[in-house]
Design goal:
The mean pLDDT is 97. The protein has an eight-stranded parallel sheet. The chain starts with a strand and ends with a helix. Strand 6, helix 6 and strand 7 form a beta-alpha-beta unit. It is built from nine helices and eight strands. It has one domain: Alpha-Beta Barrel (TIM Barrel). Helix 3 crosses helix 4 and helix 4 runs parallel beside helix 5. The chain is α/β, with parallel strands linked by helices.
């Protein structure tokens, strides 16, 4: 079992990282993809510590759209920062999370778009998958992916909460789709209806911890061990056996991230 997207290097885990990892391993997890903010030395060090505690930890490095404003006017430099961070991390397996967030608009939208494009180009050149964050920016996200993909791109829409159109466009591009604990929320009926349209070969699951703890843990800090609840929900919605679905998801993760 794998948590394909978590933030083990976050401040939220600074005081009890070892215990969090022990619970994940006890729950049956073999790997977790830890998201690291490019250029953040503290997060890089914490990710390294996590890896010493758990050999199954892999990383992805990127400039989140919330931080894109750091590069306003010199957006191409975002790719340089990512490249430098990747070069220092032999366990890095992807570029991310990257993308667009028009909900908060912490950075100007044109800046977000240019930073996103620069990182897609870097990922293509390095032959690494991208981990995509998109919020209230579906049309622009897909347009940029189509324009920058060159007809070939690997990656995943993480913590999927979008429309049927977004899911179908992403699948057409060859992307994976990952679901998180939001699936278990009472008000997520429309999202649950989209789960069956994702082929077995394109499905991933995650916690996005420390955020978005699934029911019945809502209101608490999320952690990788609780990806089990996401997997169980996916199996229920797809009418399949959880163990069989787990094996399929594990294979998808291995195919995409080559851990």
């Amino acid at each position: 079992m794998i948590d394909s997207h978590c933030h083990l290097a976050d401040d939220a885990f600074a005081d009890d990282l070892s215990a969090v990892i022990e619970r994940a391993r006890a729950a049956g997890l073999t790997h977790a993809l830890c998201i690291v903010s490019a250029g953040d030395e503290v997060e890089s060090e914490r990710a390294s510590i996590a890896r010493t505690l758990w050999s199954g930890v892999r990383t992805a490095v990127g400039v989140h759209p919330h931080q894109a404003g750091r590069f306003e006017g010199h957006e191409e430099d975002a790719a340089s920062v990512v490249r430098a961070a990747l070069a220092q991390d032999p366990y890095a397996r992807g570029v991310g999370e990257i993308g667009l967030d028009y909900h908060y608009d912490f950075a100007a939208r044109p800046t977000q778009q240019l930073v996103f494009r620069a990182q897609i180009k870097a990922a293509r050149e390095l032959d690494l998958p991208i981990i995509i964050h998109t919020r209230e920016a579906e049309r622009d996200t897909i347009a940029i992916l189509k324009e920058e993909s060159g007809g070939a791109i690997r990656g995943v829409l993480h913590c999927f909460t979008g429309s049927r159109w977004l899911a179908e466009e992403a699948l057409t591009l060859g992307l994976h789709v990952s679901f998180a604990g939001i699936l278990t929320f009472a008000k997520a009926a429309e999202l649950r209806e989209l789960v069956p349209i994702v082929p077995d070969t394109r499905l991933l699951c995650e916690t996005d911890s420390p955020y978005l703890a699934p029911t019945p843990f809502r209101g608490k800090r999320n952690e990788p061990a609780w990806v089990v609840r996401v997997l169980e929900t996916l199996a229920e919605l797809r009418g399949t056996n959880a163990n069989e679905l787990q094996a399929s998801i594990d294979a998808n993760f291995a195919d995409l991230f080559r851990p």
